Amino acid sequence: METRSRNLFLIPYAFWIALFVIAPVMLVLFFSFRGLDGGFTLSNWTHFFTSTYFQLTLSSFWYAFLITLFALLISYPTALILTKTKHKQLWLLLIIVPSWINILLKVYAFLGIFGTYGPVNALLETMGIGTQQILFTDFSFVFVSVYIFIPFMILPIFNALDKLNPTLVDASRDLGASSWETFRQVIFPLTASGVKAGCQLVFIPSLSLFMITRLIAGNQVITLGTAIEQHFLVTQDWGMGSTIAVFLIAVMAVIMFLTGDRKRGLANEKNV
What we know:
Order of helices and strands: HHHHHHHHHHHHHH
Structural class: mainly alpha
Largest sheet: none
Helix content: over 70%
């Protein structure tokens, strides 16, 4: 009886997944085999694996890697410091609150900050460096992207560090390990699940960025997300746009599988 009632509760969830996840993916997959004339074709896929799109794919992965790397380098020490502060939950909340603001508003704010007459260039003028072209550069794109994704990297790392048993750290130091050895052999391995979760939350969305590339980087940075936008809204080539989207979905699924917590899944199977 209990199993039957549990299955009944799963029906709305299964309906939601089928309608808003599986159906859209199948629709995009269908359009990836449609040409401009509406007929079936494989030309979209053959064209996708040409040198131009291959370079675009490498560029997307490179920028996603840089954004994830810088976000991790900033977030891990920040999360480590937060766990040692007195009001850590309050400080964590202050870091997370900006993520509730619409991304478009934050991007427009950086247009003013990095603009020719913005505060950054005003500071550079005061220092005698002079006005610099900060917008529409690789630097501005990576900087703004890292700023936007930092809360999503900090949160899982903070949770992993907060759950870390402090007696393990004390035992490591009592056995003569230095601070670096304790971090390398105890703290980081035990919080690797938080790091992987944070990297997933940053790397995967970074692959499909298009609004930030448009407003902050202009035409200097072109990613797969930008290409999808171009094909759907400008060239009206839905087949090519769908092909790139299917490729991105497949890559995201592979990344999630490779970085997923498979040990936990095995443990759950054993418990069952």
